[in-house]
Amino acid sequence: MPANLTPQxxxxxxxxxxxxxxxEKRAALEEMMATIPKHKGTEKMRADLKRRMxxxxxxxxxxxxxxxxxxxxxxxxxxxxxLLGPPNSGKSSLLAALTHAEPAIADYPFTTTxxxxxxxxxxxxxxxxxxxxxxxxEHMEPWMANVVRGADAALLLVDPTSAAVPEDVEEVRDxxxxxxxxxxxxxxxxxxxxxxxxxxxxxxxKADRARPDDLAVLEEFYGGLxxxxxISVTAHQGLEPLKVAIWKHLGLVRVYSKxxxxxxxxxxPFVLPxxxxxxxxxxxxxxxxxxxxxxxxxxxxxxxGQRVARDFxxxxxxxxxxHF
Length: 324
Ligand SMILES: Nc1nc2c(ncn2[C@@H]2O[C@H](COP(=O)(O)OP(=O)(O)OP(=O)(O)O)[C@@H](O)[C@H]2O)c(=O)[nH]1
Ligand SMILES: [Mg+2]
Description:
By secondary structure, this protein is of the alpha/beta class. The protein is 32% helix and 20% strand. It has 9 helices and 12 strands. α1 (7-18) runs antiparallel to α2 (22-35) and α2 runs antiparallel to α3. The chain is globular. It starts with 6 loop residues before the first helix and ends with a strand.
């Protein structure tokens, strides 16, 4: 669906780009949020705006924190994904299986006490996964809300063999909702503006040990709320489908730029939110030149080098030749 951005939105965006101070940036982002058309076609862009606001808030908090320590995980790669769940649900095991990180894994609860990032290769991009301590009604690290808030998405890990399921999962959702980070299967059309909802995939772990009854309970509880996948780290089941689902869930597109008359560079795609246009890509590449963009040629889908306008919305795996 096309984004159909208004001149008011474009003006606010220009202000954001010109902004130097945090206050100016925040004001411009708020204006962008207020003027962006609210429909399905701008859903990912709105989520992107919220994340930028959340990150700005994190930066401010980090600067102004006087007591205790501030925990922050610098985002890297195409997206940042939080691993959330009750104790022992298999978060660290999944991080170890999908990245080169070597977290502590143990059969007792509360093994993980600090955030640990790792990079997950997926085709030609890298996605950052962040392993986190468990969340329960009695215990949530004080920095958790701040770290989780700026993320692009989350995996909610659930051990179907746990005697506490699904109450232990509800505890995680409740505690995060209480700090205004509700876990959602899909972004709400019009949520509470104070919330930063996190798009969440539910990952049922330990499939090698799960009984059909355990799975039926979870299916009944959460089937309508979250996309659900089953994995087993021990038996190497479901890990490739999980990676594909994570990428799809992010709603990002990979775009390869091609200088006129030269071959395409496929090594290092630009990663953009769905709804970004040829003009947005030009700005990513060189901001000063982007106003001079004449047209672009696109290869991908039905296009084989045809000219497209500046407001052409890019699709995953498009090859783009920009003409200034
Ligand atoms: N059978 C089986 N056991 C698993 C699987 N994944 C993890 N485990 C076991 O479950 C236990 C907990 O795993 P962790 O990865 O430490 O769980 P966690 O969610 O990080 O735990 P905390 O950090 O304490 O919250 C360990 O004994 C793992 O070996 C799996 O796919 N199958
Ligand atoms: Mg752990």
